[in-house]
Every structure is written in C-alpha cells, then in structure tokens.
Design goal:
With about 260 residues, the protein is of the alpha/beta class. It has a domain of about 150 residues: Glutaconate Coenzyme A-transferase. Helices cover about 15% and strands about 25% of the residues. It contains 5 helices and 11 strands; from the N terminus they run H-E-H-E-E-H-E-H-E-E-E-E-E-H-E-E. Strands 1, 2, 3, 4, 8, 9, 10 and 11 form an 8-stranded mixed beta sheet that branches. The chain has a 3-stranded antiparallel beta sheet with strand order 5-7-6. The termini are far apart.
Amino acid sequence: MQTVAGMVPAGGVARPVTTASDRRTSTPTVEGKVYPSPAAALHDVPDGATIMFGGFVSAGKPDNLILALIELGVTGITAIANNIGNGDHLDDLCEKRQIARAITSFAIRASASRGSRFEEQYRVGEVQLELVPQGTLAERIRAGGAGIGGFYTPAAAGTALAEGKESRVIDGREHVLEYPLRADFALLKATRADTAGNLSYRKVAKNFNMAMATAAEIVIAEVEEIVAVGEIDPELVDTPGVYVDRIVLGERRAPEWHT
C-alpha cells in the first residue's frame, strides 16, 4: 500500500465567476492527481459555484471535503445532493449561510422535534430550494453526464413539482419534461483510489457518487486509502480515473445524527 500525504452552472448557462483570493490557498504542490489536503484540493472553488455532493444520507458523503469547504468560507453555493441534514455535514454549510440554493430530494431532517438549518432558512426566504423526486434527481445527474438533453418521466406529474414544466401524454399517462444537471465541481467519497484516480466504493456508497463523477467539470474524491496503479483489480473499479481530476486522503468519520 502506498500512502501519500469559466464555470458551467447546473442549467448550462454561462455566468461570471467571483473569486475570493484573500481566503483561498495558493496553487498547491501535488503529485499527479493526489493533493496534500482537502483544503488544497478545493483551492480554486469560487463563490457562486455549483457543487454536487455525493452520498445517500451518511453513506458515501465527502465529509472531509465539506468541512474544508466550510473553513474556506465559499459562499453562494448551489448544492446538488440527495439530502441535507440527515447524518451529514451539508447542513453545517448553512450555519454560515454558504448555501444559496439547493437541488435535492430531502431538505429536512428525519425528526419532527428539530428542523435543519437549511429548512429554517428556507422558511424565511433566505435560501432557494428545487425539490426533485429522488429517482428523477438521479436520472437528471446521469443525463448530465451522458450528454442527454432532457427526458420525460411520470414522476411528479399532476403535482406542484410539475408546475410550469412541459408535459405530454405517453402511452396514456402524463409525463413531465426534466432537464439534465451538471456542476462546476463534484465532491465524492470512495474507499480506495489509485494514483491515476480509479475509484472503488464500499457497498451502498456507490449511490450518487458514480453518476456525479460523470457530470461535473472538476471531480474531487476523498478516499480512505491511496494505492499504486495496478493494485485495484480492474473488476473492482467503479469510477474510472478518466473522470477524476483530484484525489485526497480523508479520515473516516462517523455520521452525525440529530433527533
């Protein structure tokens, strides 16, 4: 084992980039794709970036990258993730009001006794929310990676989530037109990587990570172990290194549940 120490928004429309050089690190010294720390791997993330966050609840969440993003103070983030505030650190980004908009399936905690910070800010109009059925979210990300311009789905047809969207009847059933999602950055969590960026995930941690790896301009993966090229069986490579731009070691963290 070897251990080593112009952006495109979700809608595909160009926008100006705001930088904050006073809080960013200088360009780090790296070995190929391997970065020395989570903060170094995030050194060029600008304010207003659209960022995909892998994971399903706590499984496969890039917690070390999220915590580094909090410390860097990046603001105006459009976050694309399955959930916010359920066993993950994404809700902590809201403590300093770093998330401006979220595209997600679950934006509340699984508890009636305590709301998430995101939920609190949404209720007073401080953040924007695009609520997406879970399967539709996964397919929109996959479509973004596959170059698909849009697709029709019966999910959300006839509900408030379909308001203002194009629809058509297919085989006697109403379908809603959904558009692909892409991001400036995708932050992933894998178990192992080799120095070429090939990734292997642990069980359910594959979830959104694999699709997000194909749908962002810059893909950053935190991993628990980095090995030499050839030490991961090709049959166990879940995300080929061609998709991955940066890798960084990150300690395994226990999920934080709020009741």
